[in-house]
Write a structure and sequence with these properties.
Elements (H helix, E strand, L loop, with lengths): L7 E5 L4 H12 L4 E6 L3 H13 L3 E6 L5 H10 L4 E4 L14 H22 L8 E7 L10 H21 L5 E7 L13 H11 L8 H11 L11 E4 L8
Parallel strand pairs: 1-2, 1-4, 2-3, 4-5, 5-6, 6-7
């Protein structure tokens, strides 16, 4: 239970949903310092910080747009990190022909470029044996309703993970991704077909239930553990078998 004893971790989008579960799981497994990035919900961030304190971890709050130069610079100052998890996600949920160039720029910046910015800022100070993990989704390889911008951004993230895995290998830094199936969190409220997504997920998933935030957190912690030493540039799908069906 002390797999990450004394470790320092950064989880972007770490105040709610999947990110919160990841941050708390690291703390449960012994992480000493857990930095959580968030955009603007101070109340949620403080509540998560209090939960982290209850586990014995020291919470650090990093507020702002994860794609900004300021946040990347402040992240580097909070380090060095043994694990960096880019979970923060944003995007415009619309059909392709209803999107605008500014929607593309915003979505790609927050979901994909931000990982590159964080890696540039943090990797030089990360110790040997550390890990970087990006959180993706099935929309990177499957076509989901109204998901074109986010899907493209997640595909970009997975490609970036492969390139970073090779480039950072000489530094003994591992880079991977976790692609989650449908997870019932507040993020689903942005989808006009939320109820249908949940119903389809329950009906189609061989495991018989939806993916939970803890499932994703466990996968992330595995990829950041010594046991995953030879897993590089991989996207680990955590969807209960949902994507296996034709």
């Amino acid at each position: 239970m002390n797999r990450f004893e004394g470790a320092s971790v950064l989880v972007t989008g770490g105040s709610r949903g999947i990110g919160k579960a990841i941050a708390l799981r690291f703390a449960e497994l012994g992480a000493q310092r857990v930095a959580i990035g968030y955009l603007r919900n101070d109340r949620a961030a403080e509540e998560t910080a209090e939960e982290l304190r209850s586990t014995g971890a020291e919470p650090l709050l990093l507020r702002g747009n994860v794609a900004s130069e300021r946040v990347a610079a402040e992240a580097a100052e909070l380090g060095p990190f043994d694990a960096l998890v880019h979970n923060a996600a944003t995007g415009v949920i619309k059909p392709a022909l209803e999107t605008e160039d500014k929607h593309w720029d915003w979505t790609l910046a927050g979901n994909a470029r931000a990982l590159l910015s964080l890696a540039r800022a943090a990797a030089p100070g990360m110790p040997e044996g550390s890990s970087i993990v990006g959180i993706s989704s099935l929309g990177s390889i499957r076509v989901l309703d109204n998901y074109v911008l986010v899907g493209v951004s997640k595909a970009a993230l997975e490609t970036l993970v492969r390139y970073l895995a090779v480039e950072l290998a000489p530094r003994r830094i591992r880079v991977n991704a976790v692609s989650a199936g449908v997870v019932e969190t507040g993020a689903l409220e942005h989808f006009p077909n939320r109820e249908q997504m949940i119903a389809d997920g329950l009906r189609r998933t061989p495991a018989g239930r939806l993916v939970e935030p803890r499932d994703v957190a466990d996968a992330v912690c595995f990829l950041c553990s010594p046991e995953a030493e030879m897993v590089r540039g991989h996207t680990l799908v955590v969807d209960g078998g949902f994507s296996l069906l034709a």
